[in-house]
Amino acid sequence: MNHSHYERPALGWALLGVMTVWTALTAVAYAQPVGRRWPLLVADVAVAVGMVLATLAVETAHRIDAGSPTLPAAWAAAPILACAVADGPRGGTLAALAVAAADVGERGSLTEHTFNGVVLLLFAGAVGGYVVRLGVRAERAIGTAARREAAVAERERLARDIHDSVLQVLALVSRRGAALGGEASELARLAGEQEVRLRSLVSTPAPVRDDKGSVDVRALLEPLASAAVTVSCPADSVPLPEHAAHEVAAAVAAALDNVRRHAGDGARAWVFLEDAEDTVVVSIRDDGLGMPTDRLDEAREAGRLGVIQSILGRVRDLGGQATVTSAPGEGTEVELRVPRC
Amino acid sequence: MCPAADATVAEGALRVLVVDDHPIWRDGVARDLEAAGYVVCGTAGEGAQALRVAAATRPDVVLLDLNLPDMSGVEVARGLAALEPAPRVLVLSASGERQDVLDAMTAGATGYLLKSASMSELLEAVQRVAGGDAVFTPGLAGLVLGEYRRLAGGVEDVPRLTERETEILRLVAKGLTYPQIAERLVLSVRTVQNHVQSTLTKLQLHNKAQLVRYALEQGLD
Asked: What interface predicted TM-score (ipTM) does this complex get?
């Protein structure tokens, strides 16, 4: 402690007391949001400035010239930080300038020692304010994100409930209508079609690219479901590079188109997507007319396979394989194997 | 409502509990089941109620909708599987949410149908589930295959499919019926059924073991 060397030790003690009381007061005031306004901040800085200047009255001129610390020493940094917290870099810097000016005034000149102190004070004010501002902004952003996420989750939950109810009613209309016959069976058919479409819509994940540039193939295949087409997928996502995923989906769509055109009336089709580690396998099977294998080869050689040819081409371009098997009366099955690379 | 006391009901008729939060659907299905000669021993619109009614009326089969207001379908399926004697559970879902379906099946249900299934498909499924068969849709076969593939990526002791089981599940996923699969692989329909069922049983056992392990870990903490 320096009080034994003070010119006026009693005044020193008194000012120390003032500082203690002021610290207690501000601690209480700053704890309440109302306290964190500019009147208190200005008062806080003023007290610090006053204490720095009061050093002139307490210390001997000799010791001040020798570079002894000011009366409040590091205590003077507290209001700077308070201003930085309350007002960001601007408040912090202004408070630092005020206290720095007092420091220089107290010393009478800008010694190296004072200069270092001033730089540190300005740092504390500006950088402290900046960091605090950053923290507040980050906290606000996290809060907003969390609220938004909760809202989305809630909306999804509601949507699931509503979809389930609508699906129930559509399924019911479709079943009862079919039993009633006549005009009701037409309504039943329509309800059944809408049911399949809504269900595939509900269960389809969004076809968004993930951070590796991959797309979930399920998102592209599910929408192909209809009253005549069943699509089966795993519960987990089946990622493929975006281009490959779209090519596979296009090949499947072409195969289904082929089923519609050639498999005969009332033919049904099943699309089955498998994730076999380094390969993605999609099969498209129908229970339509089918054709003998030799005719398939014949047609292929003659280049008359049309749609099938385009499917094979697409898959080969992806470095994959496609096989077509068919027999009369047993439908046709196309299997696509695409490497993950 | 327990028409089991009704004298017109045949001796030994299957007793079915219908669990669905949609009254129109619930009553419609109950009516259809009764018309087909089944005994609807109760209906419930909530999961907790379903568990109470099931414990009291001991149905052979529970038709379970996965979308209930108070409990998840998985919890209800698990609760039903814990009953003594446990009823067979046939899951009926309108939306076919993949993970929900898969979870309910591994929790102990043995059959799954979409609500768009026709009445005859539903009646047949109830009959088969009651007889101890697993009722799969192509969609469920795809989910089960995917689940085995997912488990195979783990390090722990996981159930695996035999080559035959994989082959049969793939054919189910491609929309072939059991008789069609039997014909193609030159097997009996019974054998095909047994293979399909075993794929589900292995998943259920694994799931139960996981639950026990989890409970022990929590208890020993």
From this structure: 0.85
